[in-house]
Amino acid sequence: MATPRPSTPPQAAAPPHVLPRTALTPEQVKKIEINRLKAKALRDQREAEDRKQGNSTVSKPLANNLQAGQKRPHSVILSANVPATSRNGRNTDPATNGGFRPLDQIQPARNFTKFVEYDFSKMTDTKGGFLTLEDDPHNKALHAPNADEKPAHMTLKEWERHQLLRSLREQKAGPFEPGLSVLKKEENKVCQECGSLEVDWKWLDIFGCAVCNACKDKLPDKYSLLTKTEAKEDYMLTDPELKDAELLPHLERPNPHKSTWNNMMLYLRYQVEEYAFSKKWGSAEALDEAFEKRETEKKKRKQDKFKSKLQELKKKTRVEAYRRSRQAGGGGGEFGDDVSRGGKHTHVWGRTIENEDTGIGVKACVECGMEVEELEF
Hints:
Structural class: mainly alpha
Strand content: 5-15%
Order of helices and strands: HHHHHHEHHEEHHEEE
Number of strands: 6
Number of helices: 10
């Protein structure tokens, strides 16, 4: 019994804005059916030719009784079943992979071809040409420990304790403060102002001055510290005198303006005044006179420099004004002519008199009183 031919499902209702499709005419239906039968006949003919040649892929079952459209298991696609013409990129054996590896034919981009490949396992570190501890093990300068760096065998707490002890040792404070002898009282250092035993040992070592902290704060006019610039400007001392530690001892401190600059040199005020008043200038009045003389000379040099620049400016201005008047082409006569009355005035110059302020000779006309400066070359 023949199976009934499946019928086409009814068409869905078209939206209201879409026009309904017109029904096919009998001639159109006949033509569509004829084209369908022709395509089916061509397909059957092509399948028959493939079966005769033995390479049919339509009705021939696959391996392991698999039909078209079914997924193959992993055992079907093992390397043993791979054709010899197929290349496997994971296979590194040239004999079984066509004699070459696919990655060998991949070329880098043009921008990445200019480079040098170094083998660091065969290179030697020369330390940039500098000598190291390994190169010269007997050099004491290279093996000398750096006091500002933490040694490798110390922990952070041990290094901090070491720095604290070093600072106390330098300041002679805490456990490093010199002891007082009860048996030898004459050897104990006392403050030269109040006689106290609590003297500043650092000042005693550097300045040779035994004074306590209370007296330093009480007498700032005597025990205050002066910088090198203040000592040069106020007491008119020279660099060789300030650099002589035996003549004027000084205390070095880090520069407060910038840590990379030279250390600040501090001097004790009464030692600077004692040297300046008694040894160099003789007295405070002589120092004041020398200071006033220096300031007067400095002011005079400044005024002379200003006057010289002013004279140069006047010369340039006069020459430029005369040149412009000459280029204008006359109309007013020469310099000094009386053009208001239409006549030409001839000046009668008097004797040249030197001006005290400028130092330049000035002569005046006897008739009109006009003054001009006269320069002698």
